[in-house]
Every structure is written in C-alpha cells, then in structure tokens.
Amino acid sequence: NRYTFPFELIKSADVVCCTCVTAGQRLFNRYTFPFVLIDEAVQSTEPLTLIPCVYGATSLVLVGDHRQLGPTILNKEVVKAGFKQSLFERLLRIGVPPYMLSVQYRMHPDLCQFPSEYFYGGLLKTGASATKCLNFPSNFFYVSNGREEISQSGTSFINRAEAVLVENIIRYLFKNGVLEQQIGVITLYEGQRSYILSKIFGNEP
Questions:
Q1: Do residues 171 and 89 both lie within one domain?
Q2: PANTHER family given for it (predicted)?
Q3: How many domains are contained in the chain?
C-alpha cells in the first residue's frame, strides 16, 4: 500500500535519517524519537534545529564546529532578528562545555598547522604521520585583501581577490604545460565557482 508503506518503514527502522526540514512532515507525528543527533549543527538555524526535537526527544547530540561556516542567511531582517545564531553556538555562550574531537585524518600535517594554531589554540592534531600522507609542494597563499560579496544570482557568495589569484595560478600552470584535466579547484560556494570559470574562460559578468 503506497499510503501505509512510509509509516511501516519508519516503524520498523532502528534509525531514521533525514534533514531537519523533512522532520517537520506530518509523517513523523505518530512516532516518538527520544534520541536526536544533528550533524553540521552549526550550519542550522535555531528554529530548524528544534524541528526534530519535538517528537519526545530526551537526548540531543549536536555535531559541528562553531569555528567553521554558520547558517547561510541572505535576508538582513532575519539576521537582525537574531536568527543567524545556531543552537550549538547559543549553548556554548551560556556555558555548556563542548567535547572536542582533537585528532583529524583529513589533511596533511602541514595543512593542519595553520587552522590548528589560528582557530583551535594548537589543540588540533593530525592522526596520520607526514610520511603516510601524499607529498606535495607546500605553497600557501593567504589573501587578506579580499571580501565576500553576494553573487549575481543573489543566493551565493564571491570573493573577487581570491578569484583573481586562482586565475593567475591556473594561467601560470597552463603556460607551463599543465593540462586542464590535471587541475582541481575547491571552493565553498557555487557563486565563486561560476565566477572563477568566467574569469578563466570568458563571459565574466
């Protein structure tokens, strides 16, 4: 039965995974969820975080990093109303002590050194030794004169100074025989991705 199948599926599940917004569907109203775990909790606004907690939650685990990106809110009035803060950050500010996972395995120790010292007071350590990591030339460019702007789409961000530096590096690589398919650029925003491509391949707005 197409109507009863979702209810039967949830009833038989040990763990239900969904977004905070999806948790607000009436589908969940007939169930109790005493344990709630929210990943990337710092990127969620307080109202969104509270949605999955209304089904009888007695234990709440918020996993996130308040030193990284917070909620993306483009409406200035919403920001003024205080909705830019996550529940994770509110709990920190009222003195609830966090548990820090201090060992990372995601990057080379040389890359880890800067965020560890700048954001985490030197507490972030690397689990893998440098000899087990991929060797790479450790060139680091810190762009301090750039600033974030709303992209042309109005729903993302760009940083023109960073984009110019990326463009210059890529053109240097092209000039020295590096092929397009050998280059990878990682950026957090769709707006920045589009802007960098427009700088390199034309059609710059």
A1: no
A2: DNA2/NAM7 HELICASE FAMILY, REGULATOR OF NONSENSE TRANSCRIPTS 1
A3: 2
Q: How many CB atoms lie within 10 A of CB 158?
A: 24
% the chain with pLDDT above 70: 93
Please work out, in degrees rounded to the nearest 5, the angle formed at the alpha carbon of residue 16 by the alpha carbons of 13 and 20: 160
Give the β-pairing of 125-126 and 103-104.
Answer: parallel
> Which residue, 84, 99, 114, sits at the end of a domain?
99
Angle at 44 between CA 17 and CA 81, to 5 degrees: 145
If 0-12 CB within 10 Å is exposed, 13-18 middle and 19+ buried, where does residue 87 land?
buried
What CATH code is carried by the domain that includes residue 80? Answer: 3.40.50.300
Domain presence at residue 17: yes
In a domain, 152, yes or no: yes
Alpha helices (H) in 52-146, listed in sequence order: 76-80, 87-93, 109-119
CA distance 87 to 120: 20
Domain carrying residue 196: 148-201
pLDDT 10s digits, 134-189 = 665 667 677 778 888 988 888 889 999 999 999 999 999 999 999 988 888 888 89
Q: Determine the Cα–Cα distance for residues 112 and 15; give it in Å rounded to an integer.
A: 34
Residue 118 lies in a domain: no
Q: Are residues 91 and 155 both part of a single domain?
A: no
Q: How far is CA 32 from the centre of its chain?
A: 29
Contacts of 111 (CB under 8 A, 6+ apart): none
